[in-house]
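Input chain follows. Return C-alpha cells only.
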Amino acid sequence: MQFPFQLRTDREFDVIGFGTNAVDFLIRVPEYPAFNSKVELLDYVQAAGGEVATTLVGLQRLGANTSYIGRFGTDSAGDFGLQTLRDEGVDLTFARQIEGATTQIAFIVIDERSGERTVLWQRDAKLAFKAAEAPLEMVERGKVLHFTPHDAKACLALAKRAKETETIVSVDIDNLFEGVQELLSHVDIFVASADFPEKLFGHANMSEALREIKSIFGCKIVGVTLGEEGSLLLCNETFIETPGFAVPGGCKDTTGAGDAFRVGLLHGLLNGKNVEDSARMANAVAALKCRAVGARTSLPNIEELEELIG
C-alpha cells in the first residue's frame, strides 16, 4: 500500500525536526530496585538523547538531510548536546542556547535482564517556545515536519504553516499535553506509544482507538509501537500489523526505540517505499538501536539496516 500523500521534491531538507533534545545519564542495574532498597549499579554512561534530536540523527545516518529547531541551556550539557548533532551533520540554523537555562536531562535506569528502562527527566521552562517564537519560515524548506508536542502552541503554528506549504506533518507522542487535540487535526503521520490511545479515549481496544483517532483528527497514517512485538498501523481503512525483529546480540537498552521506529518509517517514506516496507524498516531500525546502551549509540547506517531486513 502506498502512502496516501505526495512529498514535495523542491525542498532543501528531507526532515525538519522541532522538539526535544536531552542529555541522558544511563544507569545499568542487575534488576530494577524495589522501594526503599539499595542496589549496586553495574555501570553508567552519559549520552545524548531526546526524541526529535535522536530521530534526526538516525535519519542522517541513513542518508537524509535534516535540520533541528530546538533549545539547549548554556551549561556543559548544552555544549555537549549541540556538538553531538553537529558531529552527525544535522543543520542547526534554528538551534539556540538560552542564557541561564539548563539543558533537559534524564536519568534512565536500565534493567540488565531485559534492557527495559525507567526514565526520570526534567525540562527547564526557559527552553519552551511560545507560538510567536516558532520559526515558520523554516517549515517550507523541508519535505516533512516531525515534532514532539511539548510546546503545543508553537507546534500548532508550525503545523498550520506546514499545511499551507504542502509539508507532511509527523508527530511523536506518548502523553497528553494542553492543546494536543487541536494539534492532532493538522497531523498526517500519527505514531504513538501503545498506551497513548487509552490515555486519549479511556479504553484499551487498540484497533477501535486507532480508527477513532483517524476519524476524529483526519490523520492519514495512524499507528502505535508495540515493543518487541512490532507495530500496528492504520492506512486508509487497512490495518498493517508488522512483527518486530530480534535484537542482534540481545537487547541491551530500549531507550529511544520508539524514536528509532520513526527513523525507519520516515526513511521508507522519503525513499519511495510502500507503507508495509516502511513499517518493516521501522521495526528493524528499532531493533538495531537496542544493541547498545543509549538512544543513539547503535542507530544503524544503511548497510546495517539492509543486512537485517534482507
